[in-house]
Predict the structure.
Amino acid sequence: MHRGEHSTLPSLLLRSPEALLLALTIFLPLPVSGETPQASYIISRMEENQTHPTSYLEGYIIITDRFGQRRSSYIAHTRGTDRFLLEFTSRNEAGQRVLRRDGDLYLYYPDARETIRLTGAALRDSLVGSDISYEDMTGGRGLSQDYDFTLLGEEEIHGRGTFKIELLARRPTVAYPRQIFWVDREYFVLRRSEQYARSGRILKVTEVLETRREGPYHFPSRLRITDQTRRSRGTELALTTVRIGIDLPGDIFSLDRLTW
Amino acid sequence: MARNIITLATRNILRNRRRSVLSVTAIALAACTITLLFALLEGIRADVRHNSWNYETGEVRLRHALFDRYEHLNPLHYTVAEADLLLPALRSLDQTHRVSPRVHIQGATFRGEEMIPSRGIGIDLDREREDLDLERLLLSGRLPRPGTSEALVGAGLAEKLGLSPGEPFTVLTTTRLRSSNAFTLDVTGLVAFPLGHMNQTSYLLPLETASRYLRMEGGVSEILISGTGSDTPGLVRAVDEVLQAQGLDQLRPLPWTEVSGGYRYLQVADIIYRIIALCFFLVGSSVIVNTTMMTIHERTREIGTLSALGMSEGTLVRLFFTEASLLGTLGSLAGVLAGSLLVLPAQIGGIDFGSRLDMVEIDISSVIHPLLNLQSTLGVFCYSLAVALAASYLPARRAAGLPPVEALRA
């Protein structure tokens, strides 16, 4: 029943659902009024909220580290379950692109004559020096394919009632063996998440600072990701423009178009 | 009197040739080994200095003061800014022979799905072509042209990446703006850097190209400054005065003796080699002590006779001491000569440590040329002689101190 196809939070903003996602959500098992829903149902609702058939996004990233703060802006196009094209528009990174298609991640830089397909250890590198790793942008099969969910209870986050859900990985190849999500009780939108290593060490914390509603979708529009393994003050990721269900050129996610 | 003692000592030495040869051989072996060790150390010292000055630190390295503090984070934004204004002032100093601006690129190159760390060094090709003797280092291909996206790649790195001249490779790195960038370079030639770790990881590219890709905007990572080497503190002071005159307080010149890993290694190696030398001399000394004591034991009656005939204790000590001096001089001379003869071919051809030093990140070449140094060679000779004399002194004193009656009864 889970059609969203990512494993980690940052890609939530950058991916889109299958075409019939919205229609199929009506067949999900709804909780009886007043009853606590199952963890899998909560995660499904959250994923549906955060994945879109096609979209055009504009936004910015603010990276704060020991050396100061810097801001990068970007535009992104998304389609289907695993395709997105991100292009930086800020002066420092102008023209740099990240393409995700068919589960693979490709980088294009205007100064390079070849695209870089990221695999293995290279995926752990950070996106333009931020707290977001390329690995955060991969995934591909939906949380239910990779994790078992357990509802731990309910907690209040930033004045909002949330379900606290533990995600334990079913296979060792995922980026985070254990995650905890706090999902809004009312809107089924993520409010906070924590990612852990197998040793139990906390790796990343994501705080959702703002959410946004576009049609039937309710999703985070501004959040801060903090890599706990380095002395970072966090990366703020925000969407300033969101257009859902737009027409996109057929070859926009092709490798030829990436270097065009 | 002195001539009589020397004659007598020579006769005594020749009387038991086997034992004398054993003593001379022990001293010679120790002296020869130490001559070799010191020549090797001297060769390493010269090699480390050459490599460090050329590739790592110069005689004085000029960087942003905060770059060293955060070096592990590759803080390119702490640059030597507006290098074009600073370089002429540094070059105009009487003490400077070479002023080499550098831009360093810490990055990764890709071969299929494998990510291989690499280190690019942007150099002023026109100025450094001769300083670094690039033509001699070239294994194949040609040197890059200034301003182009061309590179000379270390043979080891080229092998890892499967590259040969004419082929491109792409590097993913971090820029001065702390963002990422990737760029493609064409291999124009393969080089054999003297340093093994450079061969495995490094490539050279034009300074202006490296600067452009790393968005350095007129800045460089560091400036290596070299003079004659005779007054490094003086060179540091002169550079400091230039910085103060230009109001560049954020830059810090440091002598290579403070920042070179190779130099620090040498300091430790020097102590270790001296301890090894001492051990060799102790072994040699024990042989001398042993042979002298046996000689005295065998010649106790002779000592008694000489004492009864009126030879004073002091003369007896001088006699034995002279014997030891002659043996010591002969052994030391033979050892130093043998060591020098062994060093000479190695000094020309070098000792190839091959790939053993490839991953050692100190400035030692894969091929070391031992170097004979007159001062240290003379030092080895004198030290060998001194140890031989010291080792024979106590047995000689003991022999001379024996009462004549007791000696004759033996």
